[in-house]
Amino acid sequence: MNDILSSNRQNGVYYTPELTAKYMVEKSLTYLSILDQNNMVDTKVLRILDPCYGDGIFILELLKQAKISKFKLAITGIDIQENTQPQGICSDIILIKTDFLEYESKKKFNLIICNPPYKSKRQSKYIKEKRKYIEKNYGKIAVLNLYVAFTIKATRLLDENGILCFILQDNFLTKRRYLEFRKFLLQHFIFKDVILPPQNLFHGTNADVKTVILILQKRNKNANMDQTHHNFNSVDRLQHQEDYWQYGSRRFKINQSLFNNTPDLKFFIGHPIFAIEFIIDLYNNNIKIGDIYGGGTGISTGNDKYFLKKMTNSPGNGWIRFYRNPGGKQYYYLPKEWIESDVDKSHSQSRNYIIRNREFFYKEGITCSSMGVEFSACYMESNSLFGINPTLFHENHDMLLYLLGFLNTKLATYILRGFINRSNMVTASYIKGLPFIMNNNKFIEVVSLVTRIIKGLQSDLNYNYNELSDNLDKIFYEIYGVTDEIKNEIEYFTDNIRSKI
Ligand SMILES: C[S@@+](CC[C@H](N)C(=O)[O-])C[C@H]1O[C@@H](n2cnc3c(N)ncnc32)[C@H](O)[C@@H]1O
To answer: Closest Cα to residue 127, out of 139, 143, 115?
Structure first.
């Protein structure tokens, strides 16, 4: 099929890979066929729309599969670009060159399938220019990202019981600012399949973006709300596109109403029900780290080359250590960057030198990772300063160590990276939002284990603390009421974290 697809595909515009398009079309037609058997679609000719067909991969795939399908297909393709004419298509397909968000149609569709553009309001010139129009027609949430606007528009154009099959960037699954979009999806759709495709789907095309496939059925207003009481397929991150046809053991049947109880209505995809319920209970029944510990981000210099010095020993009087992302290191490390302790002097030199949370400056604390796949935390010595990665504080030294012990457990990584934030950017609010359980009986043991690790690393940065941190894992499993079943999930996730998120 490659030769009839446009050169844009080879040139790096991230179009849907063929196997993924094949799977999405196949699944959508299967669902429509089931709906047909139950008399829930009203015609033998299916009205199908691809609102941004690009080089036409979905249209070509639909035509291929139409040959073996019992349906006749009436396909409409829309794209804003002039030069995207799917080659090799000669059947009676309507192709319209227009902006989908301005497209007017009285016709409703049985299936809307696409890979819409993923552009946040920050990245999109289009959103900046048309912000007012988009907000007015599709609501405030539509300006978050072009794919949100596309989904809202597509929902309006779908027939009741119609199928929406979209491949989207996966950031909306857990990000706080997409809460209203998640609410929208829960309200308007019955979930059929939510699948995490392979991570590297778009790698070949310069776009390092993680995605999710949504196959959803538009709710029928006349039917009662019981439509939700069925289970959908929630499929964990796949390794290869071929795996679409053999999910293996990482497909879970989930009731979408579970997501009404998750923090911020986050969509926990690819996890078994017992693990989701465990996380929901943890969040409902416990205080949060931010209720006990203070902190947040610190200094952003605006010009690191000018304000920081990189060297092992102190550059001289008035210079102190500057802590930022510990970069996967746990418990303790010594930063090799130095900053002048007189922050007001530095600030007076540059307006871009930004100071936040100064009440915590020069105190001992915990510096946490902000970027990267793995999450970790390290002790930060007093008389230092910290950057824009999350940094936490408590007046009591032992309380700091207790938290440091927890933050470096597999459990903390699992909650944070498996559920609360799938992206590689962890901000202070996500960490401060983690459930916190203080256990007085185990407190001294935790503090002494963490102290031993820190002391070991202070005398030798290659100190092997595996056994001690395994002990901490076990203690916190007990404190947080982790069963063997959940423990297996945690270890599976943390062992495979690079390919799972
Ligand atoms: C990520 S590509 C996907 C192409 C194709 N659907 C696929 O999956 O291979 C996005 C396409 O959306 C089109 N597009 C962007 N903004 C649009 C808009 N407002 N209305 C219609 N099409 C748009 C672009 O021209 C591009 O062809």
So the answer is: 143
Query: Is 331 inside a domain boundary?
Result: yes
Residues 333, 439 within the same domain: yes
Residues 375 and 411 grouped into a single domain: yes
Tell me if 364 is assigned to some domain: yes
| Structural domain that includes position 303 | 289-500
Q: Tell me, using a 6 A CB cutoff, whether residue 54 lines ligand 1.
A: yes
- Regarding the beta carbon of 18 and ligand 1, being less than 6 Å apart is answered no
Instruction: Write out the DSSP string of 247-301.
Output: -GGGEEEEEGGGGGSSGGG----S--HHHHHHHHHHHHHSEEHHHH-EEE--EE-
Ligand 1 pocket test: which of 80, 118, 137, 166 has the largest number of ligand atoms within 8 Å of its C-beta? 80
Contacts (Cβ under 8 Å, ≥6 apart) of 246: none
Same domain, 161 and 293: no
Same domain? For 317 and 214 the reply is no
- The CATH number given to whatever domain includes residue 343 is 3.90.220
15 lines ligand 1 (CB under 6 A): yes
Per-residue pLDDT of the chain (501 residues; tens, 9 = 90+): 444 455 555 444 578 999 999 999 999 999 999 888 888 877 678 999 999 999 899 999 999 998 887 788 999 999 998 755 565 565 678 999 999 999 999 999 999 999 999 988 888 889 999 999 999 999 999 999 999 999 999 999 999 999 999 999 999 999 999 999 999 999 999 999 999 999 888 865 555 789 999 999 999 876 655 555 689 999 999 999 999 998 788 999 999 999 999 999 999 999 999 999 999 999 999 999 999 999 999 999 999 999 999 999 999 999 999 999 998 899 999 999 999 999 999 999 999 999 999 999 999 999 998 877 788 999 999 999 999 999 999 999 999 999 999 999 999 999 999 999 988 788 899 999 999 999 999 999 999 999 999 999 999 999 999 999 999 999 999 999 999 999 999 999 999 998 888
SS3 of 76, please? strand
432 located within any domain: yes
Number of domains in the chain: 2
Q: State whether 190 and 317 are in the same domain.
A: no
The rounded distance, in Å, linking the Cα atoms of 35 and 99 is: 31
Q: Which atom of ligand 1 is nearest to the CA of 54?
A: 27
The residue among 270, 305, 338 that closes a domain is: 270
Question: In residues, how long is the chain?
Answer: 501
The verdict on the CB of residue 159 being under 6 Å from ligand 1 is no
Pocket lining: 99 vs ligand 1, CB cutoff 6 Å: yes
Answer yes or no: do 246 and 352 share one domain: no
Please indicate, yes or no, whether residues 376 and 414 belong to a single structural domain of this protein. Answer: yes
| Residues 390 and 447 occupy one common structural domain | yes
The H or E element containing residue 305 is: helix 304-307
Q: Is the pTM of this model over 0.85?
A: yes
